[in-house]
Amino acid sequence: MTSAFDRRLHPVRPDLASSSYQGRVQAQRFVDGNPMRVCRDMLDLRPQPNPEAGIDTQALFGETFTVFETTVEGWAFGQLGTDGYVGWVSDEGLTSWAQPTHRVRALRSYRYPPADLRFPPLGLVSMGSLVTVTGTTTTRDLEYALLDDGSAMVAKHLVPLDHVEADWVRVAEEFLGTPYLWAGRSSLGLDCSALVQMAAQAGGLAVLRDSDMQATDAGDLLEDWQLASLERGDLVFWKGHVAIVQGENRILHANGHTMTVASEPLDAAVVRIAANEYGKITVCRRL
């Protein structure tokens, strides 16, 4: 009965399931989750509690991770609040939950021990990370946001949680040159679907994590698309890949060909990808 649920999106196993699934699945036990938050700059999420297992995605600083089980080896099984992704993380990367107030808008920004850029930073957090601001202070004419964990960040690098960018594709364009990283989900390295997800989030659009999920769920399906009819912000999918339309005959994507976030002509990319990578375009969608 549990096999019908995608293990990436449903905290359901034969031996354990979230209490919210009681009556819908069979499991040895049902548990209430304990909401925690990520306290590392990035936290790898894996399909098994094994450091040698591949990485599915990454959780960002301050994001909620609801824990359903912990092991004596230091692993936590749970679900990421931002996009519902399920898996295992190191429990050393989690701390008690607090309501976030702001989101990191800069590509990346440092957290400082006091509110002073001359001090060695505590960490480097990516766009999309969440923080709880308790106050502000100014040091040498630069305003800092004071966080609930005692650290401080440059205030102009943050936006309120309800802030929405008018052009989410412009946010994606800020990632140009960022290294490609399979399963990466930060401005230090990310994959094709993470680029879509993170930029869309800045535009107030909730998008699932993996490209196959996006291909069936993101926005609206374009039934009779032609390359020439695609508009800025449309998504072009291949089996295992996604790109963002920038404008007429131009796409932006994190890709293994350049190993970066790159912009290139759509028609040339279609030919190359069909010949060497993912085959033909499978679907196009509009956010």
TrEMBL record:
Protein name (Swiss-Prot/TrEMBL): C40 family peptidase
Source taxonomy lineage? Answer: Bacteria, Pseudomonadati, Pseudomonadota, Alphaproteobacteria, Hyphomicrobiales
- Family, similarity comment: Belongs to the peptidase C40 family.
Every NlpC/P60 domain range: 162-287
Task: Kindly give the Pfam families that the UniProt entry links to this protein.
Answer: NLPC_P60, SH3_16
| Keywords, ordered alphabetically | Hydrolase, Protease, Thiol protease
Example GO BP: proteolysis
Which Gene3D superfamilies does this entry report, sorted A to Z?
A: endopeptidase domain like (from Nostoc punctiforme), SH3 Domains
